[in-house]
From TrEMBL:
GO biological process: carbohydrate biosynthetic process
Gene Ontology molecular-function annotations: N-acylneuraminate-9-phosphate synthase activity
SMART domains membership: SAF
SUPFAM superfamilies: AFP III-like domain (SSF51269), Aldolase (SSF51569)
Residue stretches making up the AFP-like domain: 295-350
Protein name (database record): N-acetylneuraminate synthase
Source organism: Tessaracoccus oleiagri
Organism superkingdom: Bacteria
InterPro entries in the cross-refs: AFP_Neu5c_C_sf, Aldolase_TIM, PseI-like, PseI/NeuA/B-like_N, Pseudaminic_synth_PseI, SAF, SAF_AFP_Neu5Ac, SAF_PseI/NeuA/NeuB
Pfam families recorded: NeuB, SAF
Length: 350
């Protein structure tokens, strides 16, 4: 496994701040200006990249109306809807892509996409995307993964619903092309997802099992799960974003608003810094604090020959004298010399 890769020149790995992807998905609500505003918002919030989804209803499914082509009635967000209608509403028009990518470049943020069929890969390659994302449901489409990996760009593979064998097949498919620029994303493909289903402890397991960098594609509400994921080794976090949940949209219910995205960028970076190193002991930043630990001090003027007792020696701040537990050893012993109030008690005084 490479210690890090680069997406559009931005390092992705354990020695860099978590790479933050703002997923637009269908939150543009069919409005190009809103899509442009989401790109601007993501850039201003500090995300490293904004991601689209490149499909049409006809490239991702077919116009059919049997039970297999409908969401279950009990689905929290899209109950009973036809796949074709949902994808037709949520898709990002292909003619918008170049405009959105150009706008992203102007705003200093990377832009790429998830292709859902080979024609989408060819289209995105013509636009010079810096990376590709494999969506969770596409992890079993090994020919598509091979085609994506053959482009020689970083491949981000989301693993929602996937078994360990399916993840292994997908990673091997990507690596069979000679492409080692792989990031696997821990993911719960539920919308919105319950934080209790995040299973963040699986992140280091996946990293070891597949010898790969691991990140998080998160569909929970808020930023608690993404921040916590960094402690388990996540080097990349993807979250759906919107300008306002009140505006509606297919993914708005579990998407971050601008201030929340900015907070996630900030707090995941703080979380990485907080990991530090596996050592116990005083830190350099605690050096001043060490001066003010408790120790034994002379608490009033004493004369040579006086005996040590609670009336003239106590455990106080600062440091510099004998350790407090030494009092039982020095109590009753005579002072060898005079000592003024505020003198640290040391063996040479006795």
């Amino acid at each position: 496994m490479a210690d890090s890769i680069a997406i559009g020149g931005v390092p992705v790995g354990h020695d860099a701040d978590p790479f933050i992807i703002a997923e637009m998905s269908g939150n543009h609500n069919g409005d190009l200006q809103r899509a442009l505003d989401i790109v601007t918002m993501a850039a201003e919030a500090g995300a490293h990249a904004v991601k689209l989804q490149t499909y049409t209803a006809d490239t991702i499914t077919i116009d059919a109306d049997t039970p297999s082509f409908r969401l279950s009635e009990g689905h929290e967000l899209w109950g009973g809807r036809r796949l074709y209608d949902l994808y037709d509403e949520a898709h990002t028009p292909w003619e918008w892509h170049e405009t959105l990518f150009s706008h992203a470049a102007d705003k200093g943020i990377l832009a790429f996409s998830s292709p859902f069929d080979p024609t989408a890969v060819d289209f995105l390659e013509s636009l010079g995307v810096p990376a590709y994302k494999v969506a969770s449901s596409e992890i079993v489409d090994l020919p598509l993964i091979r085609k994506i990996a053959e482009q020689g760009k970083p491949v981000i593979i989301s693993t929602g619903m996937a078994s360990i064998a399916e993840i292994d097949d997908a990673v091997k498919a990507a690596r069979s092309t000679g492409n080692e620029q792989i990031v696997i994303l821990s993911c719960t493909a539920d919308y919105p997802a319950d934080p209790a289903s995040a299973n963040l402890r699986s992140i280091p397991v996946m990293a070891n099992a597949f010898d790969a960098l691991v990140g998080l594609s998160d569909h929970t509400m808020g930023i608690g799960v993404p921040v916590a994921s960094v402690a388990f080794g996540a080097v990349l976090v993807e979250k759906h974003v919107t300008l306002s949940r009140n505006d509606g949209g297919v993914d708005s219910a579990f998407s971050l608003e601008p201030d929340e995205l900015a907070a996630m960028v900030r707090e995941t970076a703080v979380a990485r810094l907080a990991l530090g190193e596996a050592r116990i002991g005083a830190k350099e930043s605690e050096r001043e604090g060490l001066r003010f630990r408790r120790s034994l001090f002379v608490t009033r003027d004493v004369r040579a020959g006086e005996r040590v007792g609670p009336d003239n020696v106590r455990s106080i701040r600062p440091a510099g004298g004998l350790m407090p537990d030494e009092f039982t050893k020095v109590e009753g012993r005579e002072f060898r010399v005079d000592a003024v109030k505020g003198t640290p008690l040391t063996w040479d005084l006795l």
